[in-house]
Amino acid sequence: PNDRWTWYGGIAYDSDPASTKDQISILPADEQWRYSAGATYEINESRQIGGVLTYIDLGDARIRNELGDNIGTFSGTYDTFRLVVLGLNFNWR
Predict the structure, then answer these.
(1) Contact 63, 74 (CB under 8 A)
(2) First CA to last CA distance, the chain
(3) 6 pLDDT exceeds 80?
(4) Is the dihedral of CA 68, 73, 79, 81 positive or negative?
(5) Backbone φ/ψ region at 4: left (φ over 0), alpha (ψ -120 to 50), beta
(6) 37 — phi, psi (to 5°)?
(7) Which of 63, 72, 73, 90 has the greatest CB tally within 10 Å of its CB?
């Protein structure tokens, strides 16, 4: 709308970080897609404020982790692992 606003956006992709046998339930991530959009507003020459919204799709992870002798196998499927992240920033020069 004017010279005080900066608009930005982006898309990122990462392949599967671990094989099925090495996955753990703490972060059951498969291939990952991230979509972000944000804006920065220049209040004056020394201060800026901004924000960004990111939608993260961590895929449909499958886990089949052999836990060792006498413990067994931990396995499962996570098919709706999505996140929405809001970031705010302030810059003072």
Answers:
(1) yes
(2) 24
(3) yes
(4) negative
(5) alpha
(6) -145, 145
(7) 63
